[in-house]
Specification:
The complex is a heterodimer of chains A (about 110) and B (about 130). With about 110 residues, chain A is α/β, with parallel strands linked by helices. Chain A contains four helices and six strands. Classes of the chains: A alpha/beta (about 110), B alpha+beta (about 130).
Chain lengths: ~110, ~130
């Protein structure tokens, strides 16, 4: 897994690529929680390059979301591939996370 | 000889991708569709994660043996370890409406396999038997 951090209109976009699993999710967690601890008002996560995610990767995002809730931060997902969306739906997390088709919609939402 | 592949990996998460690759190829050999293959690959990965986390408590110096095989009208995966005995009574996922980190892996395993059972004949460690009807 690689992680690219981009800026979009003053906000951070976390763009992991490859496989997010038990081995790689701690690195993702470290970056995500760093922004959460800095109380980033909005964080975008671009899933375009993500080929695989397991429950540890999902748990990382749940932890991030839970960390942002107390200060009113928003965690917004975009470009989720169909196979990964199916896992979010199965685990009912599609109702919990803010999911958008692209960053323009996520920015407006 | 029936289609059967056995892989032994160290109990370290860096080897999980290897297990996933083999799971994927075995599913294809057994004629599974792409969506089935993805479900099985994820489930096997989750089961091996559980071995690392719960049976071995993160100790990376042990072994996990994963056997894939085609069985009559089905596909079977047997995962063996020599770690702490699992108690099936305590293996259950979280309520999916209770959103919190963790507790999802068991749901993902049971989604992919019709049979999820520990072979009680194994005296030390665990032998998890997963079977999917085809």
């Amino acid at each position: 897994m690689d992680i690219e951090i981009r800026d979009y209109k003053g906000m951070k976009v976390i763009a992991p690529s490859g496989e997010i699993d038990m081995h790689s999710s701690p690195e993702l967690r470290k970056i995500l929680m760093q922004f959460v601890n800095e109380k980033a008002p909005v964080l975008f996560v671009d899933f375009k390059g993500v080929e695989y995610i397991d429950s540890s990767g999902i748990a990382t995002f749940v932890e991030g979301l839970k960390g942002m809730m107390p200060y009113g931060g928003k965690l917004k997902f975009l470009h989720i591939p169909e196979g990964i969306m199916e896992i979010f739906s199965f685990s009912k997390l599609d109702k919990v996370f803010e999911i958008y088709v692209n960053i323009n919609d996520a920015f407006k939402g | 000889m029936k289609d059967s592949v056995t892989v032994t990996i160290p109990s370290h998460s860096k080897y999980l991708s290897m297990v996933r690759s083999i799971a994927e190829k075995m599913c294809r050999i057994c004629g599974m569709a792409d969506s089935e293959t993805e479900d099985v690959k994820l489930a096997v990965d989750e089961a091996c994660c559980n071995v690392i986390k719960h049976a071995y408590k993160g100790d990376t110096t042990n072994k996990i043996v994963v056997k894939f095989r085609a069985v009559r009208k089905g596909f079977e995966v047997i995962i063996e370890d020599s770690g702490l005995k699992a108690d099936p009574a305590f293996i259950k996922g979280r309520d999916l409406d209770d959103v919190r980190p963790g507790g999802l892996g068991v749901h993902l395993i049971k989604r992919a396999f019709d049979v999820f059972e520990f072979d009680e004949r194994k005296k030390t460690g665990n032998r998890l038997v997963l079977r999917r009807q085809l």
